[in-house]
Amino acid sequence: MATVLDILQKGTVYLEKYGVEDARLNMQYLIAHTLKCNRMQVYVDFDRELSEPQILLLRTLTKRRGNGEPLQHLLGTSQFCGLEFKIDDRALIPRHETEELTDRCAKLDLPERPEILDLGCGSGVIGLSLAHHLKKYQPRIVLADISESALSLAEENRATLLPEAVVTLIQSDLFSSVNGPFDLIVANLPYIPNSSETTLSREVRRDPAIALFGGEVGTEIIERFFRDVNHYLKPGGIIALEYGFDQEPTVRAFAEAAAFTAIEMLKDLSGICRFLFAVKSDKVS
């Protein structure tokens, strides 16, 4: 009978053969998922013999991962800002950069009972994480997305993680069905150029196209955002956006044209300019 170590070694070699990055780490997660334990327990149980059903399940999961199915889809969950979210192909898999954006938002100087909009919410990771980490301020959170499927996933996460929080879900094409104003609008909108589809990894191409592609240039949806956002912000309200690695000049120009002040273009932990924070001018109605 195969042991945990046997499966870990053979599975790692298999995933490496099919070009999976961090193959050993992927196998650790798949084994932990199958055994219903945490990843560190895998090391403790190297000599544990697996049952035939467990071996068959791991073979299936390993083949699916080798074919490019994202690890998060196979596990069904993803850790984000200390919470475990349900993740599947209805919405974008959350990235570390978006977690950085959310952490920065949680540290903003917001009023008591802040009104917060998570625009293009996907699975709800940003808005629900803020609802959790800012709960002492009693925030009112609105999750909005154009995708009905994504909103259904966000609702499942809300019901599981924050059933008592004041969270509203709205299907909306940007601001079309949203009522403001808000103290903070945070958005991770599609920003990949349509022409970049063939350059994306197998895993990223499993995400919904509607959550990835922002138009021929990539910034068209962000440009639409800036046309209307002032109407949905309180005076002194803050916007926080994620954008593509080479889009800083374009996004800054959008913010300046919309008369935002205190514009900050911030780098992620990889040193890539990735986030915009800006404040609505009191002179803009």
Please, could you describe this protein's structure?
The chain is an alpha/beta fold and 285 residues long. The chain is 39% helix and 21% strand. It has a 7-stranded mixed β-sheet with strand order 5-4-3-6-9-11-10, with helices on both faces. It has a two-stranded antiparallel ribbon with strand order 1-2. A two-stranded parallel sheet has the order 7-8. Helix 1 packs across helix 2, helix 1 packs parallel to helix 4 and helix 2 runs antiparallel to helix 4. The protein is elongated. The model has no long low-confidence stretch (mean pLDDT 95).
Features:
single chain; 285 residues; alpha/beta; seven-stranded mixed β-sheet; two-stranded antiparallel sheet; elongated
Shape: elongated
Strand segment tally: 11
| Alpha carbon gap, first and last residue | 71 Å
Relative strand content: 15-25%
Explain briefly what this protein structure is:
It is built from eleven helices and eleven strands. With 285 residues, the chain is α/β, with parallel strands linked by helices. The strands form three sheets. It has a seven-stranded mixed β-sheet with strand order 5-4-3-6-9-11-10, with helices on both faces. A two-stranded antiparallel sheet has the order 1-2. It has a two-stranded parallel sheet with strand order 7-8.
